[in-house]
Amino acid sequence: MSERVTRSQTGKTPRKSTIPDGFVETPGTRRRSRKSTANPDRSSSPTEEEHVPGSNPIVDVKQGAAKRANGHLNGAPRGRVVDGWSEGADPKVDQNPHFDFGGSWGVSAMMIGFPLLMWYMWIGATYYDGKLPSEPSMSWTAYGKHLFNLAYTGAFPSLKAWVIYWTFLVFQAILYLTLPGVYSTGKPLAHLGGKQLRYYCNGVASFYTTIVVALGLHFSGLFKLYVLLDEFGPIMSVAILSGFLVSFIAYPSAIYRGAQHRMTGYHVYDFFMGAELNPRMFGWLDFKMFFEVRLPWYMLFLTSLSAATRQYEDYGFVSGEVGFVLMAHFLYANACSKGEEMIPVTWDMYYEKWGFMLIFWNLAGVPLSYCHCTIYLANHDPATYAWSKPALVVFYTTYLFVYWVWDSSQSQKAKFRHAERGQMQDRKTFPVLPWRHVENPEIITSKSGDTLMVDGWYKYARKIHYTCDVYFATTWGLITGFNSPFPWFYPVFFVLMIIHRAYRDIQRCREKYGDAWKEYERMTPYLFIPYVV
After folding, report:
1. Are 151 and 125 in contact (CB under 8 A)?
2. Dihedral of the alpha carbons of 494, 496, 502, 506, in degrees to the nearest 10
3. What is the pLDDT of residue 479?
4. Cis amide bond preceding 234, omega within 30
5. Counting beta carbons within 10 angstroms of the beta carbon of residue 338, is it exposed (0 to 12), middle (13 to 18) or buried (19 or more)?
6. CA-CA distance, 248 to 305, in Å (whole number)?
7. CB contact burial 124-150 (16+ within 10 A = b; e otherwise)
8. Key word Oxidoreductase present in the record (predicted)?
């Protein structure tokens, strides 16, 4: 067997690196022999690729418009395909396109259907006591007009909603640019000769500042948090429209500036998936990082916090169920913040482009459709959905245990990636959990020299963190009971989405790692749940 299972020796002596013009060069300049132990200058993970400087021509993105003939760009022969880019070819063109979501027709249906679904669920939650909107006596035409009138009158994007929503976005941008934080380094970008973007990460300071300001506004009376519930419909409409507006600006802007990357040539599909890979403002505010960490999860947490303030004002207490979703959403938003420096090497940062999918999903989809568990609890008397105290104890304790697995597994993987580059940071951010890092983990080295960590939680199941995510989503629905379908939208949607994402990831890993991935599958046969599946 050509693959070797060894112990990593990473994390011993971090290397320093220079940072010219916002980039750093990829640590390491050559591949090591497979006979050696893990290379501390190599990046690795089941979803990482690495370009070795000097092994191929470095293609300037400004050459993207150059003519390609017989697989050559400026005389340089094409090489292997790395993240959709063929070495030596035009980085603006996807050389190995895969059309997800049903291609142009599928993404068109999603761009039309999902906003309509969001309004439909809001109508049911608001006007039909959480039930599916049903008017059997109406014709389909009359029914459509009826739903439109409800959405128009109750969810019209008022000026107040625009001010609330965009004040929050601008406030978060100011925090991003001004509060203290740490620096992190992204994955080597093969089409830029292995260069890496630097990221400024101050999610922890931003999150806790947001909480302090929100509570200050609430208790001072300047802005009661439950206004977010009272104005939920209009704010949701503003978020939907904002998703389209930002997308319509981002796509032509990237093309006008020549910043497009890995385009398929199918404009609808490219609009959905995005044109630009690393959009930034002021050279520092990274839009993908900003949108993914702060906007959706902070808004989701604030919605649950607003439900707690409303319930306390109406009943004089906060129910165990509302407390549970508040805890759950706090932990998720806090985890995204405290682990922000680990996000730059993830799939969303180094591969996904900034298009409608990421823009709309972070501005509207996540914060205003995942929150229906909170909306249901806020709209109903606590007595109608109360769980027994023993049941609530089970909810809280099992959630905290699964959270530990999820948080520590993500940390193990991310710290391994950073340690192999000599860039690991050991931050003491709350909550500091045990087994965050595996010393000298067991790894598999592929024929190409890429490595896989097969230790820690990942020696028990290859996608164990996805299992935790599914558990989170399921409990967010289960805590509300079964009287409304809308809190169950997120669990059902998430399971389908995570299965699709796992399939995409496995296909890429099999293509990239070859026999090494097969060896990992042999060593760890379970995908989601150890000893089960």
Report:
1. no
2. -170
3. 98
4. no
5. buried
6. 32
7. bbbeeebeebeeeeeeeeeeeeebeeb
8. yes
Closest CA to 235 of 156, 337, 148, 349: 156
- Measured on CA atoms in the order 491, 524, 424, 32, is the torsion positive or negative? negative
Residues 324 and 395 sit within 8 Å (Cβ to Cβ):
yes
Q: What is the pLDDT of residue 449?
A: 82
Model pLDDT, residue 503: 86
Give strand pairing partners of 68: 73
Q: Is 441 left (phi over 0), alpha (psi -120 to 50) or beta?
A: beta
Do 271 and 356 contact (CB within 8 A), yes or no?
yes
Name the burial class of residue 212, with classes exposed (0-12), middle (13-18) and buried (19+) by CB atoms within 10 angstroms of its CB.
Answer: exposed
Contacts of 354 by beta carbon, 8 Å cutoff, 6+ apart: 250, 254, 274, 275, 276, 277, 279, 287, 288
- Ranges of beta strands (E only) in 270-323 are 280-281, 285-286
Q: Which residues touch 503 (CB under 8 Å, ≥6 apart)?
A: none
Q: Which residues contact 492 (CB under 8 A, 6 or more apart)?
A: none
pLDDT computed for residue 335 by the predictor? 95
327 CB-near residues (< 8 Å, 6+ apart): 396, 399
What is the predicted pLDDT for the residue at 234?
A: 98
User: What's the pTM value of the predicted model, to 2 decimals?
Assistant: 0.84
CA-to-CA separations, 93 to 53, 67, 83, in angstroms, rounded: 21, 12, 11
Cα–Cα distance for residue pair 176/178, rounded to 1 Å:
6
- pLDDT score recorded for residue 6: 67
Q: Which residues are bridge partners to 280 per DSSP?
A: 286
Consecutive sets of 10 residues in the chain, 533 residues long: mean pLDDT of each? 59 42 42 36 35 31 33 45 74 84 95 98 97 95 97 98 98 95 88 88 96 98 97 98 98 95 94 94 88 94 98 97 98 94 85 94 96 97 96 98 95 83 76 88 87 92 94 97 96 91 85 89 92 87
d(Cα 386, Cα 315) in Å, to the nearest integer?
14
pLDDT of residue 505: 84
Cβ neighbors of 506 (< 8 A, separation 6 or more) are none
Q: Which long-range contacts (CB under 8 A, 24 or more apart) does 280-289 make?
A: 282/177, 283/22, 284/177, 284/200, 285/173, 285/176, 285/177, 286/197, 286/199, 287/250, 287/354, 288/348, 288/349, 288/352, 288/354, 288/358, 289/199, 289/201, 289/340, 289/343, 289/344, 289/349
| pLDDT (0 to 100) of residue 115 | 98
Residue by residue, DSSP assigns 333-344 as HHHHHHTGGGGG
SS (HEC) of 501-512: HHHHHHHHHHHH
**CB-CB contact of 32 with 39 (8 Å):** yes
Residue tagged 């505010």 (tokens) = 285
